[in-house]
């Protein structure tokens, strides 16, 4: 059994214990509160004067797929030979010894969503995994967590300059619609065959991935910076009755009411970024606060390695400068990304029965002087 005693425990589930205790056994949290007896033989960590929180969660990264130091040799991010590649699986490209995983642990990040880049209209399926391990299969929490899609400049630039489709935003939307329609026809053929009314279609891995979206088993996670691209995503989502998550949502503050009305969540960021392309000209630290004001569910991301993953908490702190409350900012890197990933029953808060993913900090996570003192994943203390 592991015991963290005497710390300022922020559960992210409505509870705060200034002199709290967290007990973990067999990878799970078994108790949290004050005046909790510590069983004999427990491995005790004295957290007096320190902050104890659920492990941080970065819902949108490219961790393990785009390694910082190897350039082309470590780049498995974009299969930029075909704009429609929904059958690609992030799990097949992740290198668990990417140094970014060490950085994640050093920054208190215990769970990430990682996946393909945005060169293609449909780039492949994303995966959620813990940041500790040597074999990806053992690190996976859930696969898939969504199908990556992209609108805006990236697909245009990647294919248009080669005189291929898409070269315009119209073509990007059309390709996405065409693929969803093909997915619907694939489902109909399967259903007819199940009723004995025809033969089964030839297996199509691309369309199998698309049908998971059409059946609302997973969301379509759409890279969209500009407000018009966000609206295109909402338009297509409504046409096909699919679940959406808006990734980046740079101009989300301009259409926050539309996102709220559609009930579509967002993963906002990266926050620490310059205006590297025209789509970022209206980037603002106020985006998250505006989304919160309209009741939009959102998380904050690093887009690692665009922003190094260890700066996730700093990114959330900068959103506070933009008007977001500290409570909302803490939620945006804990319980809210857990909900967006569909994993809030396991991670994102400190509660009995949840995974023993805990971060212990010397001070408040938004204080630049704060350092990570200890990280637990599945109830085990991690060396980093």
From TrEMBL:
Span of domain Amidohydrolase-related: 51-381
One matching Pfam family: Amidohydro_1
SUPFAM superfamilies the record matches: Composite domain of metallo-dependent hydrolases, Metallo-dependent hydrolases
GO MF entries: hydrolase activity, acting on carbon-nitrogen (but not peptide) bonds
CDD domains: Met_dep_hydrolase_C
Gene3D superfamilies noted in UniProt: Metal-dependent hydrolases, Urease, subunit C, domain 1
Protein name in UniProt: Imidazolonepropionase
Record organism: Desulfoscipio geothermicus DSM 3669
């Amino acid at each position: 059994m592991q015991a963290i005693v005497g710390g300022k425990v922020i559960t992210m589930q409505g509870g705060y214990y200034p002199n709290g205790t967290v007990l973990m056994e067999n990878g799970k949290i078994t108790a949290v509160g004050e005046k909790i007896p510590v069983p004999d033989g427990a491995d005790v960590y004295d957290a007096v004067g320190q902050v104890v929180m659920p492990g941080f969660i970065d819902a949108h990264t490219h961790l393990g797929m785009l390694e910082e130091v190897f350039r082309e040799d470590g780049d498995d991010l974009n299969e930029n030979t075909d704009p429609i590649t929904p059958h690609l699986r992030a799990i097949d490209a992740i290198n668990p010894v990417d140094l970014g995983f060490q950085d994640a642990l050093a920054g208190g990040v215990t769970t990430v969503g990682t996946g393909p880049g945005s060169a293609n209209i449909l780039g492949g399926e994303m995966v959620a995994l813990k940041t500790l391990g040597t074999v990806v299969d053992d690190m996976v929490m859930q696969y898939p967590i969504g199908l990556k899609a992209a609108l805006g400049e990236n697909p245009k630039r990647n294919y248009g300059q080669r005189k291929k489709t898409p070269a315009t935003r119209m073509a990007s939307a059309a390709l996405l619609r065409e693929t969803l329609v093909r997915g619907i026809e694939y489902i109909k053929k399967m259903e007819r065959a199940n009723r004995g009314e025809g033969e089964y279609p030839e297996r199509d891995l691309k369309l199998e991935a698309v049908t998971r979206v059409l059946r609302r088993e997973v969301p379509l996670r759409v890279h969209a910076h500009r407000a018009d691209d966000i609206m295109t995503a909402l338009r297509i989502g409504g046409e096909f009755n699919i679940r959406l998550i808006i990734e980046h949502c740079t101009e989300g503050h301009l259409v926050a009411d539309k996102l709220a009305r559609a009930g579509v969540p967002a993963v906002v960021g990266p926050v620490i970024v310059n205006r590297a392309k025209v789509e970022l000209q209206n980037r603002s630290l106020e985006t998250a606060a505006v989304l919160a004001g309209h009741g939009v569910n959102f998380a904050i991301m690093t887009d690692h390695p665009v922003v190094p993953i260890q700066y996730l908490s700093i990114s959330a702190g900068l959103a506070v400068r933009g008007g977001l409350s500290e409570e909302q900012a803490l939620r945006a890197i804990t319980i809210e990304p857990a909900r967006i990933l569909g994993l809030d029953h396991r991670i994102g808060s400190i509660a009995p029965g949840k995974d023993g993913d805990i971060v212990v900090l010397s001070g408040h996570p938004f204080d630049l002087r704060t350092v990570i003192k200890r990280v637990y994943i599945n109830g085990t203390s991690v060396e980093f």
